[in-house]
């Protein structure tokens, strides 16, 4: 019998790439959950399949509405669950902390409880975040799985809850649920509320003559280890298919580490307008507190699955910039 996968947040950057990967590398039927108002831009290349119900099925649900989540579980009857839906913007969480907590903490509980009460035997991936580690002292780098949580935003606090809920359901009810703390991952379809994507979008807009040659930034002094989203979804696939162990938790991330300022320099170097672009700090883009050292130790996940990133940083940055260039050519841009 053909396996079934449920992807919550299928229209997001990671969810849509997860869909791409599973369509190409498996014969599974895929049930993608999204809110009824979610833009379909990231999965528009699959619309023909969706309309024909050819392996891809879209179900509507909201993490804050348990009845809708239960309905999604009943309809999809998944063998695998990739719980990727979230309020995923750290900066936004400072303005909307309660919405962030409700969506990410209570929403994850809704997903897990619906699976439990329906007797699901699914293998479950609960996506937390490296942000749970928050402000890590330099002598703790690289960050391993046992590093103390010190969340630096309401989003990070919510992801601590997400992480612990996934592990709780594994330990209390014997569910095969695993949590991941993915470090910075990016690429095409990255939302423009994230640093590298808003930089890329601004550069593309400068090239198109839509804004003055100034890239506005927040904190450029944070250290980040970058991975490509297309490598990330392969890691998630291996997580649920390579000897999955309920209750386990893994750090996952790339191998290229640099400052946010160096990442911006790379993007500017790829621009046709590189000789005229200036950089300017925008106070509105600064977080009240920042997780400024995000360098992972991924040995545990590598030893368990053999996964390692394949797409180089330079290619990720080029593809991200080209993504925004393509959107601008179709006039699909925002003002941020």
Summarize the structure.
This protein has 336 residues and is of the alpha/beta class. The protein has helices at 13-25, 47-52, 66-76, 90-95, 97-117, 154-173, 195-207, 229-241, 260-269, 299-305, 313-329, and strands at 4-8, 29-34, 56-60, 80-83, 123-127, 176-182, 185-186, 214-217, 223-228, 249-252, 256-259, 278-281, 293-294.
Mean pLDDT: 96
Largest beta sheet: strand ordering: 3-2-1-4-5-6-10
Unreliable stretches, pLDDT < 50, 5 or more residues?
none
What is the strand content?
A: 15-25%
Beta-strand segment tally: 13
Radius of gyration: 19 Å
Judging by the overall fold, what is the CATH architecture of the largest domain?
A: 3-Layer(aba) Sandwich
CATH class of the largest domain: Alpha Beta
Characterize the structure shown:
It is a single chain. The protein is of the alpha/beta class. The chain folds into two domains: 209 residues, NAD(P)-binding Rossmann-like Domain (Rossmann fold, 3-Layer(aba) Sandwich), CATH 3.40.50.720; 81 residues, UDP-galactose 4-epimerase, domain 1 (Alpha-Beta Complex). The protein has eleven helices and 13 strands. The strands form three sheets. It has a seven-stranded parallel β-sheet, with helices on both faces. α6 links the parallel β5 and β6. α7 runs parallel beside α9 and α7 packs across α11. The protein is globular and about 60 Å long. The termini are far apart. The mean pLDDT is 96.
